[in-house]
C-alpha cells in the first residue's frame, strides 16, 4: 500500500509591494529548481506556479511524496 502526500508551499505578495519583488522571487525559485539547490529532496519537487491576480500574487512550490507501507512490516501480533 502506498500513501501519497501533496504539499504546497506558497509565498503571498500583496499588491502594495512592487511587481519587482514577485519577479525576483520567481527568478530565484526557478534558478534553485534548475540548479538542483534542494539537494536530495529535489526528486520530490513536482513544479512551481506563479499566480498574478488583482487581490495579490502567489508563488507555489509543489512537493509530492509517496510513502510505501508494507503490511508485513507492521506487527499486529500482541503476543496473546
What can you see in these coordinates?
The chain is an alpha+beta fold and 80 residues long. It is elongated. It contains one helix and three strands; from the N terminus they run βαββ. The chain has one domain (2-71): 2-Layer Sandwich (RNA Cap, Translation Initiation Factor Eif4e). It has one helix spanning 19-34, and strands spanning 2-14, 45-52, 56-68.
Helices and strands, with pairings:
Elements: E1 2-14, H1 19-34, E2 45-52, E3 56-68
Antiparallel strand pairs: 1-3, 2-3
* Tally of separate domains: 1
Distance between the termini: 27 Å
- Please indicate the percent range of residues in DSSP E strands (runs of 2 or more): 35-45%
Q: State the total count of DSSP E strands.
A: 3
The parts where pLDDT drops under 50 for at least 5 residues are: none
Mean pLDDT: 79
Helix content: 10-25%
**How would you sum up the major sheet?**
3 strands, antiparallel
Helix and strand run? EHEE
- Looking across the biggest beta sheet, what order are the strands in? 1-3-2
Short summary:
The protein contains 1 helix and 3 strands. With 80 residues, it is an alpha+beta fold.
Tags for this model:
RNA Cap, Translation Initiation Factor Eif4e, elongated, alpha+beta, 80 residues, 1 helix
Amino acid at each position: 500500500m502506498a500513501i501519497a502526500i501533496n504539499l504546497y508551499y506558497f509565498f503571498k505578495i500583496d499588491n502594495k509591494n512592487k511587481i519587482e519583488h514577485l519577479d525576483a522571487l520567481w527568478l530565484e525559485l526557478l534558478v534553485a529548481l534548475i540548479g538542483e539547490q534542494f539537494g536530495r529532496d529535489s526528486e520530490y519537487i513536482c513544479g512551481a506556479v506563479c499566480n498574478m491576480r488583482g487581490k495579490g500574487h502567489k508563488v507555489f512550490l509543489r512537493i509530492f511524496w509517496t510513502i510505501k507501507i508494507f503490511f508485513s512490516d507492521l506487527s499486529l501480533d500482541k503476543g496473546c
